[in-house]
Amino acid sequence: MTLRHYLGLVAVAVLAVGALYWWTFSRIPGVKVSSWWRAPWKNANVGGNPFSLHQLGLAWDVIPGTATTQAQLIATGLPMKIVPEGDHIHVQLI
To answer: Is 86 helix (H, G, I), strand (E, B) or coil?
Structure first.
């Protein structure tokens, strides 16, 4: 297998993990995923960290539906870091 094939498989795996998280979060009643994958230029335009996991599709911004959203995210059992950021919750793969 060449490096190009290996990198393609890694990209598909990362996309699959990101999609699984997005699908899980979007199924929580009242929750909206407002940001998932960002191109580097979009990340810079929104003032994102230059090393943001959004650029790899492994971070999500979630607009809470209720006061219990953080507990609902934790209850999914998925490994994640949760950072409240005012008007949304930033969630990223650990």
So the answer is: coil
Among candidate residues 6, 5, 21, the one with its CA nearest the CA of residue 54:
21
pLDDT digits (tens, 9 = 90+) for 23-78: 998 888 888 899 999 999 999 999 989 999 999 999 999 998 777 888 888 888 88
Per-residue model confidence (pLDDT) at position 1: 77
- Edge-first strand order for the sheet with 81-84 is 32-35, 59-63, 89-92, 81-84
Give, in order, the Cα–Cα distances in Å from 87 to each of 2, 16, 32, 62, 63: 44, 27, 12, 9, 7
More confident call, 25 vs 1: 25
What are the C-alpha distances in Å from 72 to residues 25, 80, 94? 9, 12, 17
3-state helix, strand, coil in the chain (%, to 5): 45, 20, 40
